[in-house]
Amino acid sequence: MTQQPAPQRVVIFDTTLRDGEQSPGFSMNLQEKLELAHQLARLGVDVIEAGFPITSPGDFEAVHAIAGQVHGPVICALARAVEKDILRAGEALAPAARKRIHTFIATSNIHVEKKLRMSREQVIETAFNAVKLARSFTDDVEFSCEDAGRTDWDYIVAVLTAAIEAGATTLNVPDTVGYTVPEQFGQCIRYVREHTPGIENCIISVHCHNDLGHAVANSLAGVRNGARQIECTINGIGERAGNTSLEEAVMMLHVRKDYWGLETGIRTEEIYRTSRLLSRITGVRVQPNKAIVGANAFAHEAGIHQDGVIKERTTYEIMHPADVGWLGEGMVMGKHSGRAALAARLEQLGIKGLSPEDITAAYERFKKLCDQKKTVYDEDLLAIVEDQVSLQRAIYRLVDLEASTSMRGGPRVRVAIAVGDAGEQHEALCTEGDGQVDALYRALDQLTPHTIKLLEYGIESVTEGKDALGRVMVKMNIDGDEVRGTGVATDVIVASAHAYLNALNRFEMLKEISERAASTATP
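RESULT FIELD:
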């Protein structure tokens, strides 16, 4: 049987790689999922929901790889209450030292009648059989009543009772569509806890969506009423408006321990680093005013606030930036710093496991940056290293770029790229378009065999000042698939080229992984 946590301990179940990854624009390849899973283990999450193996060969391969290579957390796979799903989940989780199958079926009237087209009795029987089958693979089985937020409470009790009888050890009550409000959701958890036979031997879990902005509040209301597992994601990503934000829920329990009297196993100093890693992998930045991890979370512009913080930090800061691993923008290095100093500083900033080749390439970019900028911040170092590592492993690489424009003659862009391990060079010239970026992308379009359409283009400053690095983020449709890319440089046209090629490289990697997974999939 799964060991139950102490009453004051809240289990953190991270579903960034499953619920978060399946939302538009957040897809990750196998290596990116592994990288994030290892960081989630360093963060200290209790459970990693690694994916939904039945959905695709690529998802199966990712769950299987994480199960075999990531140690510490329980590795979980999602499965509908369907035999083939559960068998596939069990197969994917085979290498894990600690494994969980999470099976679910919808319980609200609208889902039972319109989607499942089953009777309520059939749903209960299906739930029982699914849990029973899952128990043949592991004694750690979680069961969820999908759309519990719109299910009558007595029926939730009936379905969960069957799941307990079949051997479920964690019972999840999800607000799948973000419909409930905190008081109502809390009352639901209390009712279920007080009326479900055998539930005292199980962990009650909550999984809330943010459609009405209540995901964190609803989850905490559930905890207040007896839930001891929160299902959440980094940066709150997920279907539609997202899921419960891990960093917000965890820091609420941490900062206000006087109120909650609860704890988690999260190493909070890894929060900011994990948030940044997810943003780098997906190319989706956190909004500046996002709680805990937003750029403005510890910024003070109002004079009265600045004066108060200078005199006593706690006047306007209820937590220390270092508590969540926030780096700030301290100047740390200059053009006379050596390769060893750069490697040591990157280690301090949490960039670990770089190869000597990665360090050398990043150092060359760092030296060039020192010639272009007066001040080099930690954020600059992280940006160039993250960008350089992706370039080192790229199929398409930027070799040269010339761009100019005039109000009378329009833009003129010449771009050269290298392709593949052999570095075969290709060059294109474009003298038309709506500005230099448009001309650049038209030129790059000529150098690839794919049909590419730019869907989104954004640019931001990594740090302050006119010599700041610019980070460009793009979303492109490549042969029908949506892919994101990022690039950084002090020249935004160069950054735009890197972003385009980064998206193209991500597309090629995703295609390669999908083809490899399909060729090795079990018939």
